[in-house]
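Q&A log
Question type: sequence-to-structure
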Amino acid sequence: MTPVLSPASEAEITALFKNAAIDLYGIVQRAKTKGTFYMYRLEQLHAIQDVIAKLDGDSKEWAKENIPAVMEAASEDVKAEIAKQNEPDFSFRFSGVPVEAVKVLTHQTYLDFGNTIVLLKKNAERAALNKLMIQRKIIQATIRGGSVASTQADILQAMKNDVQSVMYRGGQKVPVEAYINMLVRTQTMNAYNIASSQQMLAAGRMFAICPVVPALHRPPDDPCWKWEKQRYINLLKDPMPPWHPNCRHSLQPISLAQLKAERPDLYELAIAYFNKVAG
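Response status: OK
Response body:
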């Protein structure tokens, strides 16, 4: 069971943010050609707002199209897995993903995109309003004997990093496309696991399995170690993955026969829950 988000869809949302950041930097570093300095700044701020408005609309459309698709795929994956378990005594008609859950997850994704958009807007506006200060620094550095070209290049590169990056945890700056990749993967896993857990609960399954994923470069304090060791996730009380940004865990349905063999204590709880749901 793997979250379904095509490489094209992931590339699409990443490109939206990356291209917007490039456009914002182009606006900020564009030289004044005519009119007053005030009008020049005003034109910059209006141009920034145009880029932000387009990104806001495009990212919202992306979320409305892709998050429901991921949740529907999760629901279908759960149905297929439970069907393969071939337990006719513990099956009944499946329900779909709750409409309200789809709305909430889509809205949450849009809000997360919106937070990033606000950061990009603030970075660009701050850089635009600080451009005079940057120009003064170039003059001061030249007076002290620095090369005009190298000094300007250094300062413009710093400004570019400010406009095309966002602040992450711990004050670390990361390129906007890397941040959006992380955000999309995390939100995709969130949508997938919420939809699959809802489908499992609706099908009378109280427990799911947390699969072991390749360790790769996971640190010792990765919270996923705890859940892999626990193995059985109580869908009624345990937190759902993702357990951290970029978490790759997706919960899987466990057959009641397997649960009885491996954890008879949990099996009794699972049977009680199934009977309650089957009613």
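Response note: The first strand starts at residue 165 and ends at 167.
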